[in-house]
Each structure stands twice: as structure tokens, then as C-alpha cells.
Amino acid sequence: MNEPYREEVEDFYMSDLKKPPGEKVSAWPCTGRSGSSSGVSFSCPHVFLCLSLLCQAGSLLGHPQCLDYGPPFQPPFHLEFCTAYENFGCCDQEKDNSIAAKYWEIMDYIDPQGHKLCGRYIKDILCQECSPYAAHLYDAENPQTPLRNLPGLCSDYCSEFHFNCYSAISLLTGDKHMQECCETNKTRFCNLLNLHDKDYCFPNVLRNTDLNRNLGSVVEDRKGCLQLCLTEVANGLRNPVLMAHANDQTHRMFVAEQVGIIWVYLPDGSRLEEPFLDIKTIVLATPWVGDERGFLGLAFHPKYKYNGKFYIYYSYMDKKRVEKIRISEMKVSASDINKADPHSERNLLELEEPAANHNGGQLLFGVDGYMYIFTGDGGKAGDPFGKFGNAQNKSALLGKVLRIDVDGKSTTGRPYRIPPDNPFVSEAKARPEVYAYGVRNMWRCAVDRGDPVTRKGRGRLFCGDVGQNRFEEIDIIVKGGNYGWRAKEGLECYDTKLCHNSSLDDILPIFAYGREVGKSVTGGYVYRGCESPNLNGLYIFGDFMNGRLMALQEDEKTNKWKQQDICIGNTKACAFPGMISSYSKFIISFAEDEAGKLYFMSTSYPSAYAPHGSLYKFVDPARRAPPGKCKLKPVPVKTKSKRIPFAPRAKTILELLNEPPTMQPPGKSSSTGVTRTSSSKKAKTTPPSKIKASTLKPASAGKKTPKNKAKVKNKPKRKVKVTKVSKTTPAPSSTKRNPRVTRMKKL
């Protein structure tokens, strides 16, 4: 697929593939902080296949989590009651009103003296449901464990509360055991509310600078590695080269395999049994490891919802045994919106490929409505075609970014129109389709949707251009731009003679990295989704050969880009339901869905016929959007094909942490955390010891009841009317656990 081609990479691949398919990537052992467009200033030599927690953020890494097992959020509106958490926490206005209603119902049973003594304590305890660390306070990090009735309280605070307000315990909890044993026994009560991890008990959790430093921001470890998490979305794919959406409000995902098959995935995660398109008998693809030929590109027309048109890019061999690239237009079936019309193909453009590698393959529509085509330079090594190579030859279509209007026809017989503002339409020897040139083999490009509020950045074209043998680069494509190849590779000269004679107006990459970092860039996307607001503006990409994930952040003042590594699978930061701790090594492509959520595809064995590819979604564990903000309403889709439910293969982090500890031979120290092996082996773990309120035995009898405590009025049989705290007051609520997450059977 990516660079270098078969002859150059065979040894590299085979050395990695001596192990059985299933190799996974976990954390990166980074030896530097970050890089910039001016050079490389870090080194991560190898991928470790065990979860060694190399990207942990020091000795104490906070893990904010709400009672619904998701990250905290910034409430969209002011909180009137639990104001301590109005900037960041686990309550929206509705939940805040519900807690306030419960508070006033409790206070209705307490005398005036009790209001003064206990009001603050009761409010603090109730509002811990809004704490960004609510899951820890209620011992609810794991959906499989019982939920506490009351939050974990620090020893001193618990003693003060019990001394002053022991009579309020029966109002705060309906737990009969706690009511019977603990109103008169402080020791038993505080033992039940004890947390094993003292850093998370209330109110210590508010004072802990390590836990609250940069709370709500993307978590970084000491070396600057961004802590993100993954969920597995699809598996069993044969070299998934791309995922696209039709922008038709159905929120379907179309995933293409290199062999020439496109599958439809529905919003519920299921896949349709029959493919959207199957042209594997036409597509030129082989089982050779690293072969770049095959089905490479897919783009839906901006008005697909109305005209049903989409476009494909693939390798094929003509009747004279000449290898070519074909770009075609097709239409959806009139009888089934989940099937393409196999007889609708209209050939737009064919390019003869002088070699089997450097096939390009990206198709996309810009915000201008035109289609952009990204071609490779023709293959071999060093672009040896002609005096200056294909990439610098504007009369050749290879090594270019092309732009065409698929909605028109030219007067010269082309099945497309040339946009009148293409940069070289008036240059006699140049092909009018050329939009930019001097590219080697751009592998995966994307259009920036722009900032959701300001629209800044909208329409920028980002590409990863695979290097020859020294540098990989990320470029922003501009009209008429010369990106330097083969005169330059990355930021330096490749062909010295051409380089010294090249234009000073060559477009330099926004970022380039050397072989000590990676060997084959896979271009990504600028995150503009709703679900993870922290990631807005980050350009996320990776390296095909070593599985490294990276991000670029633009400095708006200097217009320079800062690079940071992305670490996946941290067992503490990613201890959420559904999160996994590893991914298949060879990163083939990135994608975004209709809502802007970001994904990538990778495989453990880079052969077009090997069903070892998977699709993963990025998740920021530090912050999410407020509940309801990103709620989708997909247009219903009628399906004629059978739906195949998603069956995950990767073990989640919670499953790994819940596995029983493995006995070790005498003389060997036990491992803390999780030891990752290949997918065919079971991981080892030492689960943390936790104190469960439901299993603790009460301590011995405590002191006698003091006389000067707050008194609770005789509780009437009829429910007391709740004092309103806002225009609309929800009914009193109690802490409830969501239905337990059902574990999917591992295939």
C-alpha cells in the first residue's frame, strides 16, 4: 500500500511478519517532547507490544469519570445549586435541579438548628454526583461493581459530619443496613464510606493539585504524549483502505477493502451482509505483502442525496496487459439505496502506470464543489521518468493534484469540465487539469471542515506525502503550488542539480519527519467533531510502517505547527466501558464520519487478501460534549440485506483489569498493571483492591449519641412538598447505576 514498495520493504515487512498476524501497538517510548516544521527533535525507535504504561502521566494520573461511565463536560448553562461544578463536572442544569429538589426535601425534615449545622454537609454530599471524579467517589469506575449509596468521604470530614448530623443519614440513603448500624456508630459509618484511594475521597479530591491540574484538558504525560483512547468499530476487513460517508443524513459509513469491495455500516454498528459495491473481478490486487495496487479511492458527490453519484479510483489491467489507473463515476441502485448500480460506471479518466507502485489514490470534493484527484509520480524510485521526472512535468498527470468539474463536459470531448480558474489553463504545455504539482505519492488527504463556531480553516486541503528514503511530510495544498519533488524531499534537497535550480516559491511542508520517527506517512484529518471538544483543530495522522500516531497543533500567532505523539491504551486514563488498549500496527488510512468523529484503519498483516484489518474510533478521556449536544437523528434507512451485528475481537481495558491474576514462578516479581501479548494470548493483570460498601462488615460499636446534635423532625407518612429552586423543579432523584454493560463474546 504505502511506501516504500515491494522490493524496498520486503525485508522490513517479513521481519515483522515472522510473528503470527495479530500484532498490536500500545504505548510509545518517546525520548523527546515534540518537533516542529523546522526539523525533528525526538525519537521513538520501536513499538513495544506489552502495555508497559510508558505514556503514564507521572505517579498520579487523574481519571475524571461520571456515573454514566463517560468523561466530564462543561455544563451548557449556569448551575444554580451545585455551583462548585458549573465550569466542569458531571451535571447539566436538569441534573442540578434534581439534586436541589432532593436537598430541599431532606431539609424539610430537619429543624432550624439542623439547617445551620447540617445544610452544608448535606449539600456537599449530594453534589458529589456532579464532581468530575464522581465515578471514583461512588466506586463506580467499573460497571460490574456495586454502586455506593453515598460518596466516599475522607476520614476527618466523615467524622465531623457524623458528629454533627448523624440523624440525617436515614434521609440521605435508603440503605437499611447503613441506617441501622451507623446512626449511632461513627466508626462503622466512616469505614463504609472509606475509599481505598485517599486521593479521591471528598473533600481531598478538590484540593489535590495533581488531580486538578489542567482538569478537562487533553491529558499529556511528562514527555508531552497526548493520552487518547480507542473503541473498536469494525474488524475482519481485508486491508481497509478508506471509510467515507455520503453526507445524506443517514450516518452510514462506507468502508472499502483494497480488493475492490465496499461495505455499508449502519449507525447501530451493524454491517450489511451484501456489499454496496463489488468489483474485485476488475480491480488489480494481489496477495503480495505491501502491494500498493487495488481499490484506492472513493468520494460521494456533494449532492449525492439527490443525484446518487459517487466516484471511484482503482488499479486495473487492460486487454493489452497494460497497468492503469481508472477514475470512474457510478450511481446508486434505483431499487436499493444500499447497493450501487454495477452497470452505471462511466469512465472519466485513465492513466497509464509505468510501474506498480506510487499509485496515489485519493479522491475528494473541495468546498468549491470540484473534485480533487491525487496521483502518484509513476513509481520505481526517484521519479526517473523524463528529464525532470513526472512530478515536475506539468504536461503529465502523474505526481499531481488534479481538479475537475464532474458536473460538466468540455468542448474537446472530455467527460468532465475544466474549472475556469485552474492555475495552468492558459499555459500551453501544461495539462489544464493540474491544480498543484511536485508531489511524490500523497497517501490520504482531507478537507478541513473549519472551526464549528468561527469556520476558520474551512476548505484547507491537508495531505501526507510519502518520502523516498529520508523524510515524510505533511502539506497544505494551495492552487498552483509546487511541492518540490523530485528536487526536494521534505525540507532538504533530493536531486541536487534540480534543487539548486528550483524556484524559491516551492511550497514547504508544514511538518516533516525523518526515518528515526517513521518510514511511511499516512495523512489524517483535522478534528472538527462535536463529541470531543478538546481535539478541535488538531490534525491527527500516523505512520504506516511503525504504527505511530501523531498530532499537529497550529500556533495561530506564528502559523507554525507543533508536533506531539499520541499514546493509546493507558489503563488509567482509558478505564471506560468499551475502551481498548491496543490496535493493529500498520496504519492504512484515517476517516471521519458524518458527525465529524475521527477514525483510523489498520491491519496486522498488510496484504490485500488478509482479513486482519480493523476500524477504530478516537475518544478523548478528559472531556466530552454536554449530554444531548451531539445527539444524532439519522434518517431511517430501509435495508433489504441482512444486518450482521458487530462482534468485537479486542479485549477492553476493563476486561483486562478484571481478569484474575496469573500465578508467577517463585523468584519472579509480580507485574503491576497489564501485560499485553498478541491477540492470541491472554493478558495478565493485577486488579486493584477496592473496598466495597456492600461487602464491608461493620466495625465494633461506637460512642454514645451526643446530646447537642441536629434533630430530625418526626417524618410524616405523607410525602413533604419539595421547595422549588427554579421555574421547573424535577422530582427528587437518587443515585442510580445505568444498566450494566453487557460484555460481547470474544470471537
UniProtKB/TrEMBL annotation:
Q: Which GO terms describe its cellular component?
A: extracellular region
Regions of biased composition (Low complexity) lie at 668-678
**Where does this one sit in the cell?**
Secreted
Q: Where is the Glucose/Sorbosone dehydrogenase domain?
A: 237-566
Task: Read off the InterPro entries from this record.
Answer: 6-blade_b-propeller_TolB-like, Folate_rcpt-like, Glc/Sorbosone_DH, Quinoprot_gluc/sorb_DH_b-prop
Q: Where is this region: Disordered?
A: 656-747
Q: Per the annotation, which location comes first and is thus the protein's main one? A: secreted
User: Which ranges are annotated Basic residues under compositional bias?
Assistant: 704-724, 737-747
Gene3D superfamilies from the xrefs? Answer: TolB, C-terminal domain
Chain ranges of the Folate receptor-like domain: 78-226
Q: SUPFAM superfamilies, per this entry?
A: Soluble quinoprotein glucose dehydrogenase
Tell me which Pfam families the record gives. Folate_rec, GSDH
Q: Which UniProt keywords apply?
A: Disulfide bond, Glycoprotein, Secreted, Signal
Concerning its family, UniProt says: Belongs to the HHIP family.
- What is the name listed in the Swiss-Prot or TrEMBL entry for this protein? HIPL2 protein
- Which organism does this record belong to? Nothoprocta pentlandii
Q: Which gene encodes it?
A: Hhipl2
